[in-house]
Amino acid sequence: MLLREGLRSLLERFEFTVVASVGDAEALVSAVDQHSLDLVITDVRMPPGFRDEGLRAAVQLRTTRPELPIVVLSHYVETRYAEALLDFHDGRALGYLLKERVAEIEDFVASLRRVAAGGTVVDPTVIKQLVQRQRDPLDRLTQRQRDVLVLMAEGHSNARIARDLTVSEAAVGKHIGSIMAKLDLAYADVDVNRRVKAVLAFLRAG
C-alpha cells in the first residue's frame, strides 16, 4: 500500500493522471477493462499469494492487448515471465524495472514516458539474467544436482535417490529444491508438475 500510494503521489506530481489504484491482480485486470489507459504499472508480487500474481496479470493483459504499455516493478528478476512479456508486440511498450530504480526519480519518470510512447525499458540486471538464461539451463546445476536429476529422470523416488547416492532424504530434498530454482520451476503450483518439468528440461538437453 505504501509503495502504491507513493507511486500515485509521484505520478501526479509529474502530471500523470491516475485513473485507478488497486491492490491485487484481479482488480488490476478489471481496472484495465474499465478504463482507456495509456500506461499500466504493476508490482510482481500482489495478493493473495504475494508470489508473481502481478506479473502473471501483466502477461494476461499483454495476451489480450499486446499494444498496452506496461511497466513491471520487482524486487527480483523472474526471467520466465520477462521473456513472455518481451515476446508480445516485439517487446514494444514494455518496462521491467527493479524497485530500486524508483529512487532515481527523474530516470524512473523518463522510463515511464518512454514506455507509454511505445518504447522498451529493461533494467540492466534483467538483461544480464535473460542473456544467462539463453545458455543451457542445466549448466547452472552442480554435479551432485545433475546426479539427482538423472535419477529423477529414471523415475526414482527421493528415498531411492538417497540410497543410490548415499545421502539423506533431507539432502535429496534440498538438492531438488535447488534444481527447481535453477531451472526456474520454483513457483510451479504442483510438486509433481515441477518434477516432470525438471525431467523434461533434462531430456531436452540431451
UniProtKB/TrEMBL annotation:
It comes from the Bacteria. SMART domains: HTH_LUXR, REC. The gene is degU1. One of its GO terms (molecular function) is DNA binding. GO terms for biological process: phosphorelay signal transduction system; regulation of DNA-templated transcription. The keyword Amino-acid biosynthesis does not apply. Keywords: DNA-binding, Phosphoprotein, Transcription, Transcription regulation. PANTHER family: TRANSCRIPTIONAL REGULATORY PROTEIN NARL-RELATED, TWO-COMPONENT RESPONSE REGULATOR. It comes from Actinoalloteichus hoggarensis. This is Transcriptional regulatory protein DegU. Gene3D superfamilies: 3.40.50.2300. It holds the Pfam family GerE. Transmembrane segments: none annotated.
